[in-house]
Amino acid sequence: VFDRNILEKIKTHDATLVGIRHCRQFAVCIPLLETDKGYELLFEVRSAKIDRQPGDICFPGGMVERGETPKEAAVRETCEELLVEESCLELLGKMDTLVEDGGMVLHTFAAVLKDYRGTYGEDEVENVFTVPLCDLLEMEPEGYYVPRHTVPDENFPFDRIRSGRAYPWRKKREEMLFYLWQDKVIWGITAKLLEAFLEVCR
After folding, report:
1. pTM of the predicted model, to two decimals?
2. What is the pLDDT of residues 82-121, one digit of tens each?
3. Residue 95: C-alpha distances to residues 6, 118, 120, 150, 195 (Å)
4. Would strands 89-94 and 125-132 be described as parallel, antiparallel, or unpaired?
């Protein structure tokens, strides 16, 4: 009976990312605004008052809190940062998920933002701007590579692995994308999410 229970658990397991329970999960929303010339994407410029990435360009979003789903977090954070009601968001669907080194998982959702009046919370947001989706679809981002190296802590048990301290850790190169629009520079994680979204649109 015990073995059959195990097999049943295996058959009915809902696959997820290995170790996701120990990851920091974030959720962002890619807001689309309908205009006379077509849809535009809304971006935020992060406030200079905040500790992490002040002045960088991002989509509305934040950490998934205990007891809420990524979708709920994306909606909550967007409403808080843009000072809008949930009824102003028409969720279109879940976009691709980004897994970053260091245990960070970013869930992305796309939504149409209705009746938006340009509002935002000044504690987190310095200003907002929009870029026509048709312009973004025509852009080719610049790409630059950043080396990433594995450096174990001093208390790492080198004696348990072959080659010890001489173990040939894999070297990585991460591509950093830059989208340049007028005087705005969209780069880093936001550029990765944007690239994935534009691929869906294409």
Report:
1. 0.88
2. 999 999 999 999 999 999 877 899 999 999 999 999 999 9
3. 33, 24, 24, 30, 11
4. unpaired
